[in-house]
Amino acid sequence: MTQDDLVWRIAGGSGDGIDSTSRNFAKALMRAGLHVFTHRHYPSRIRGGHTYVEVRASDEPVRSRGDGYNVLLALGDSFARSTEDEAYYGNEKLKPLAENLDELREGGIVIYDEGMLDEDDVADLDLETRAEENDWHLYPTDLRGIAREHGRDVMRNTAGVGVTAALLGIDPSYFETLMGESMDGDILDANLDVLSDAYEQTQEWEFTHDLEVPDGETEGEQALLNGSQGIAYGAIDEGCRFIAGYPMTPWTEVFSIMSKHLPKVGGIAEQVEDEIAAAALALGASHTGAKAMSGSSGGGFSLMSEPLGLAEMSETPVVLLEAQRAGPSTGMPTKPEQSDLEHVLYTSQGDSTRVVFAPANAEECYEQTRRAFEVAYEYQLPAIIMYDQKLEGELRNVPVEFFDRETHPDPGTILSEDEIAEAAHHASGTFARFKRDAEKGISPRSVPGQKGGRHLTSGNETNEWGHICEDPENRKDQVDRRFSKFEHIAEDLAGDESLVTRHGPADADYGVITWGSQQGTVFEAVDRLNADGQSVAALGVSQIKPFPAPEIEAFIEGVDEVVVVEMNASGQFKGLVQKELGAYGEKLSSLLKYNGNPFEPREIVEAVENTAAGDRDAPDDATTFVPATGD
Amino acid sequence: MSTFSAIDQDREIDREEFTPGVEPQPTWCPGCGDFAVLKALKGAMADIGRSPEEVLTVTGIGCSSKLNSYFGSYGFHTIHGRPLPVARAAKLANPDLEVVAAGGDGDGYGIGANHFLHSARENHDMTYIVFNNEIFGLTKGQTSPTSPMGHTSKTQPSGNAKSPIRPLSLALTAGATYVARTAATNPRQAQEIVAEAIEHDGFAHIDFLTQCPTWNKDAKSYVPYTDVQDSDEYDFDVSDHGEANAMMRTVEDKLYEGEILTGRFYVEDGRPSYGQKKREQGEMPAEPLAQRYFEDGEWERSIDFVKKHT
Ligand SMILES: Cc1ncc(C[n+]2csc(CCOP(=O)(O)OP(=O)(O)O)c2C)c(N)n1
Ligand code: SF4
Predict the structure, then answer these.
(1) In whole angstroms, what is the distance from residue A225 CA to residue B137 CA?
(2) Are strands A104-113 and A137-141 parallel, antiparallel or unpaired?
(3) What pLDDT does residue A47 have?
(4) Which domains does chain A show, CATH number per domain?
(5) Per-residue confidence (pLDDT) for residue A76, from 0 to 100
(6) CA distance A295 to A303
(7) Is CB count within 10 Å lower at the N or C end of chain B?
(8) Low-confidence ranges of chain B (pLDDT < 50)
(9) pLDDT attached to residue A428
(10) How far is A403 from chain B (nearest CA, A)?
């Protein structure tokens, strides 16, 4: 745990403005020159229900939420149900304070809203004693009172920010500027008054803590982005001009961003009746030559199973997103999990020909979305991006120049009319759309409206001219051709370090493999382990299919033992590694977590330490350790 | 060379251009009503002067959905019940194409009913032809949403206890701006209606009565029929929603009483199609999306959007 990072947690009820307040807080620190990273925890309720967001800030780049936190701003849940409901719901008003104390680090700060929380209730928490034991510093403040005096109760969050700024030495002008950018008129004036009043009052207090915001200086202009934005911007730059979808958490965010921006760049966004339609629309748009995408989360993606198969059979390029959440069925809508891997790899009938990526952070979301479009439109097949509720909402700073990229206005393998005229045709004039002996398995493609390119495409097996055909020889050739694409895709992707990312010493004794969104946390854990004298390397895998067998095999071969870290109960990625490599059962153990919260670095640190010590226990109750079969 | 030069070619079109030169001879049973739809569609295209390469037919799965295997346009034979969403997007992505979606009654009124309602509601500028044979043909004769009450089949051995769906009323209620019924036994009217539907700006639904002599033996071959527009007995205004609705109910009741009424039942001109609306709202370009890839013009970059997050 680095001591020079600061993790601020704002807690309250859903609807208390936790999201916007924390976003502004993170932005202010980013503008102050710090690296920032946010972690969101929220329940599947629109109003009320305990929620929090953490903002971690450091002068060094931050890759994960870290372990615990050191400043709590407990707003009190203004949407809490009456305390009579306590038997069922608990005293939700108190939750923002009570529920968060366990993870507060030693020497931490607690700011809570005296105006909302009853003294007696607070006394029941034994806060004073715990504070003494843990060297916590308590700053009860009448946030609601300050808010009321200058504006309305809801401005309690602004008051809290003012108090935090004063306690941690943050220049309040960062917040003033941000407020000016998002509001105006009386609302702005009232908020500014609340902020400065809270800030001034607090400055007069005697501070007992020694926490401060670290000094930092990031290079170049920074932007605060989450994975959803990474995906949407990557799609736009790669020339995606059509999206269709149906809302489902957590995919909705990408859908909304695309719906807002696509029309501005000459594209079309469609909200439709269900996910079957959504994927089918994407195929229809792609069939006419547009770069198209759709997406959903678990249950909605299940509905896309049939159109996905149609894309494979008809060789219609398309990019689909799968924003995982805890399943099965509707599971836990607002909690992350990585348990849809097998679903995404194997859903839909037949032998599948799809490409699958699982980006690890906002930058990879951008890169791999571009990659997905590139591969899909080059090879005429569906490409799927798997991410999860963690990546969807976690904000981090990315240098603006990262996005200073060329766009890709390229129709992929669609021929021009001149090329169509030169291409193979049947004597009747019908275009050989599904030519069997095509180079790299990619047969020539035309789109409706092009002269000379007339053909039929189908979800049934077809002959070279697109006509339904059950001839055994044709069937075998066509399947072989479609499968042959994978060899070339694997070659194209090989060596891309954002797809298979190695971290840590080259000659490590122990290895940790992870995939998708847990990569940052694993890398941070590995850094700590090495700093503590262990010898550990990590591999973050974002290329799922084609499976990067050589890279993974080399990594496993190079270490004594490997822990595979993933957020599911059945060890799906470990299973995939064993299936693909046909070995290593005796060398791979699993560290699993499926309680709805992503891993914390300390859990991985402990699991590797245990492994090194020959001890096969899980680090804590929240995780599960499955030893290698050779144990 | 332009990207989509097959579109809007100004020349005489011969219906035979729509007969694909490659292998497939229709696999439809002798006497199947589906032949009539194929014939009407070819004739209609020639009548309105559309060339095979500017037409996209999108079909589902079923005997009827094999239509585009025997029709020489660009074609997409999709999955059961889903031709409409595929077709809608094709039209949005390239408004210059003439898009025709087709499938059976099981395809369109059963598994795909949700898409039927929403496509009609949204008033997409396209034509949707449902081959209504009151039976599942391809899967060998099961009861369909348009099978009459009491109809027995292997999956409904004691007889269908459900009343048949009312496709015309449904289309109208949902928001279609052109609703007609024609029959395989009425080739002249069929061709006229198909041509009219294609030229209509908006969602045009044709419930096309097609007999299935193989599985629906007791079904009438839809003769004698009456063309309501030619008959003195039926007088209603096709542009009046209320009159059309009342007429459709009569038509739908009578079908199962043995009286076959065909014709145009609702024609609404002037309501902007969905694409047109979207263009007016600035949410959709007028040109085909794919054109810009070929023309390689100025492309906006996401960095302008990213700058809002600094
Ligand atoms: C999802 C799915 N369910 C079932 C089927 C099997 N199936 C193929 S065609 C068909 C029904 C055909 O009836 P209809 O749509 O009325 O067309 P017809 O053959 O009568 O022209 C069915 C159930 C399928 N292909 N896909
Ligand atoms: S089974 Fe019926 S619908 Fe199918 S081809 Fe034969 S007659 Fe036509």
Answers:
(1) 53
(2) parallel
(3) 62
(4) 6-203 (3.40.920.10), 224-403 (3.40.50.970), 417-493 (no CATH), 500-626 (3.40.50.920)
(5) 78
(6) 11
(7) N
(8) 1
(9) 85
(10) 5
Q: List the single best residue of B122, B281, B309 to mutate versus A (max A Cβ within 10 A).
A: B309
pLDDT digits (tens, 9 = 90+) for A178-204: 999 999 999 999 999 999 999 999 999
Q: Ligand 1 centre and the CA of B62: distance in Å?
A: 5
Banded pLDDT at A91 (limits 50, 70, 90): low
SS (H, E, C) A234-281: HHHHCCEEEEEECCCCCCHHHHHHHHHHHHHHCCEEEECCCHHHHHHH
Residue contact B53–A453, C-beta within 8 A: yes
* CATH of the domain spanning B3-304: 3.40.50.970
The pLDDT-based confidence of A80 (bands split at 50, 70, 90) is: low
Asked whether the beta carbons of residue B303 and residue A403 sit closer than 8 angstroms, the reply is: yes
Pick the ligand that lies closest to the CA of residue B102. Answer: 1
- Given a cut of 50, is residue A87 above it in pLDDT? no
Yes or no, beta carbons of A287 and B76 under 8 Å apart = yes
Helix (H) or strand (E) holding A148: helix A143-150
Q: Is B214 a pocket residue for ligand 2 (Cβ < 6 Å)?
A: yes
Closest-CA residue to A487 (of A553, A549, A579, A411): A549
Q: Cα separation of B184 and B198, whole Å? A: 18
Is residue B79 within 6 Å of ligand 2 at its C-beta? no
Between CA B226 and CA A599 the distance in angstroms is 72
Quick count: other Cβ atoms within 10 Å of Cβ B288? 24
pLDDT at A89 > cutoff 50: no
- What's the pLDDT tens digit per position in A21-61? 999 999 999 999 999 999 998 877 666 677 899 999 999 99
User: What is the tens place of the pLDDT at every residue in A236-279?
Assistant: 999 999 999 999 999 999 999 999 999 999 999 999 999 999 99
Phi, psi for residue B146 in degrees, rounded to 5? -105, 0
User: What's the distance, CA B205 to chain centroid?
Assistant: 5
- B283 and A CB contact within 8 Å: yes
Cα(A428)–Cα(A397) distance, integer angstroms: 58
Burial A477-497 (b: 16+ CB within 10 A, else e): bbeebbeebbebbbebbeeee
pLDDT of residue A50: 79
Burial A69-79 (b: 16+ CB within 10 A, else e): bbbbbbbbbbb
Token pair, residue A355, equals: 């490409």
Give pLDDT, residue A77: 74
What confidence score (pLDDT) does residue A467 get?
93
Asked if the C-beta of B157 comes within 8 angstroms of chain A's C-beta atoms, the answer is no
The whole-angstrom separation of Cα A37 and Cα A564 is 24
CB B87 within 8 Å of CB B130: no
What percentage of chain A has pLDDT greater than the value 90? 89
Q: Give per-residue burial for A596-623: e unless 16+ CB within 10 Å, then b.
A: bbbbbbbbbbbbbbbbbeeeeebbeeeb
> Is pLDDT above 80 for A232?
yes
Binding site membership of B105 for ligand 2 (Cβ less than 6 Å): no
Domain ranges of chain B: 3-304
Q: Is A449–B94 a contact, with Cβ atoms under 8 angstroms apart? A: yes
Q: How confident is the model at residue A84 (pLDDT cuts 50, 70, 90)?
A: very low
How far apart are alpha carbons B64 and A99 in whole angstroms?
62
Q: Do B4 and A449 touch (CB under 8 A)?
A: yes
Which atom of ligand 1 is found nearest the CA of B34? Answer: 21
Identity of the residue in A236, A278, A411 whose CB atom sits nearest the CB atom of B302: A236
CA of B77 to the centre of ligand 1 (A): 13
Average pLDDT over residues A375-379: 98
Is residue B274 within 6 Å of ligand 1 at its C-beta?
A: no
- The DSSP symbol for A129 reads H
The atom of ligand 1 lying closest to the CA of B64 is 21
Looking from the CA of residue B131, the nearest atom of ligand 1 is 21
